[in-house]
Design a protein that fits this description.
The protein is an alpha/beta fold. It is 39% helix and 14% strand. The structure holds pyridoxal-5'-phosphate.
């Protein structure tokens, strides 16, 4: 029987979705998990496996959008969280656990001398932008075309633009990526083309007196994990430094690649870094870290202090979960994930070539992505191919049916409970999915 039995109108997921549609617009708050005709609902997860409401178990290769690096119900996290909840889950004052997680991140990440916590990656990015504005006295920001940074107005720009509206290649038009973003905010965000040194220098120089910061995801998922060209991030750093513009790294996903994040691997020397996902060990979290001089704007006693808050900010449950997660990520574990990731990407790439199906496997360390384009993607624009997104939609469903869950857009990642057997399982599921794709040609 098909593993995708949740698609049957009589399945437990289908019935729950029918109820959910009467309560939640579109039937789900997880809007970025857009499975048609309806999503499946999860009953439980353990290690690298999740079980849906109809009792089907799958290998989870998306791990709550990369947030769970040790998979589900990781025993050290379960223990730390259980003990913390019994001691109290949230207070109107700080706890030791906040300081401990801050200490760990300051020790590991080169660009982080001070850090401040929040509840989501979106907030981590938002706080960094506000800090850059307060520090520079300038209002506008720049970002790269195709990069997603959460759903704060200023960055909901040009991450889903297309040929009809994206404008010239070397001077992209600022396009809203959502309704509800005020037009003036869209126009204020300067959009830059990735890996295009000349355009970045020209556009930033033209608008410099107004630009507070450039937001950079050093390994942007939405862009297809197109890595920075050698020297590109250092070029951005040189240009911005000369123009008095700050650099914000969005490491909400890319922090997975190394103990010190992508900045420890690719350079770029950011002034501020936004975090989320794995630093909360599976619980809601976000953070903004950076150089002490810039981060001073979060000190209520400073002359250019910004107002920030959050009822659940730095709650000790998220803090202990993050600590247990990051402490278990030692050098040997990063090395193992890195080897596994390289091996898996190579094997998946081979399968594509053998089947003669258009597509590319991108990513770094424990992150990988199916980019189903005909040409190898060099820019965001290369990834926007109607045939590629249609192919990805079908690949997602075939993989799901073969027992492997990835993101609907092709994003996927490893977790530490996975080993050789699980890599073989992913390759086999991909093989099966590629047969299905070929059969439908
Ligand atoms: C690169 C990047 N930045 C920011 C965010 C926003 O994080 P959150 O969903 O926790 O608000 C995401 C979420 O996927 C992301 O991928």
């Amino acid at each position: 029987m098909s593993a995708n039995r949740f698609l049957d109108p009589s399945s437990a997921s289908a019935r729950l979705f029918a109820q959910a549609q009467r309560l939640i617009p579109g039937g789900t708050s997880k809007a970025n998990f857009n499975v048609k005709p309806h999503p499946f609902y999860v009953a439980s997860g353990r290690g690298c496996r999740i079980t849906d409401l109809d009792g089907v178990e799958r290998l989870d290769a998306i791990n709550n959008f990369t947030a769970l690096v040790h998979g589900h119900a990781f025993p050290p996290v379960v223990q730390a969280v259980t003990e913390q909840v019994a001691r109290g889950s949230a207070f109107a004052a700080s706890t030791r656990e906040e300081v401990d997680l801050a200490q760990l991140l300051v020790e590991r990440v080169p660009g982080v001398e001070r850090i401040r916590f929040a509840n989501s990656g979106t907030e981590g990015v938002m706080m960094a932008i506000k800090a850059a504005r307060a520090y520079t006295g300038r209002d506008r920001i720049a970002k790269f075309e195709g990069a997603y940074h959460g759903y704060y107005d200023d960055v909901q720009v040009s991450f889903s633009s297309g040929p009809a509206d994206w404008g010239p290649e070397h001077e992209p038009t600022s396009v809203p990526s959502s309704r509800g973003v005020p037009k003036h905010r869209v126009a204020e965000t300067l959009v830059l083309p990735w890996n295009d040194r000349d355009a970045v220098e020209r556009l930033l120089t033209r608008h410099a007196p107004e630009i507070a910061a450039v937001v950079v995801d050093p390994l942007s998922n939405r862009m297809g994990f197109i890595p920075p060209a050698p020297g590109f991030l250092d070029h951005v750093r040189r240009v911005t430094r000369a123009l008095g513009i700050l650099v914000i790294f969005d490491e909400v996903i890319s922090f997975r690649v190394a103990a010190g994040g992508a900045q420890s691997r690719y350079g770029g020397d950011p002034d501020l870094t936004a975090f989320g996902k794995i630093i909360g060990g599976g619980f809601p979290v976000g953070a903004t870290g950076g150089k002490a001089e810039v981060m001073a704007v979060f000190d209520p006693g400073s002359s250019n202090a910004i107002a920030s808050g959050g009822t659940f900010t730095a709650n000790p449950v998220s803090m202990v979960a993050g600590l247990a997660t990051l402490r278990a990520l030692d050098a040997a574990t990063y090395e193992r994930l890195e080897r596994m990731g390289a091996d898996l990407r190579a094997r998946l790439g081979e399968r594509l070539r053998e089947h003669g199906v258009d597509g590319h496997i991108t990513g770094d360390a424990s992150l990988f992505r199916f980019v189903m384009t005909s040409k190898p993607p060099r820019t965001y624009r290369d990834t926007v191919e109607p045939a590629a997104s249609e192919r990805m939609g079908r690949l997602f469903m075939h993989l799901l049916d073969a027992g492997v869950l990835v993101n609907t857009n092709g994003l996927a990642c490893l977790s530490t409970p996975m080993g050789d057997a699980e890599l073989a399982e992913i390759v086999q599921a991909f093989d099966q999915a590629l047969w299905q794709l070929r059969r439908a040609r």
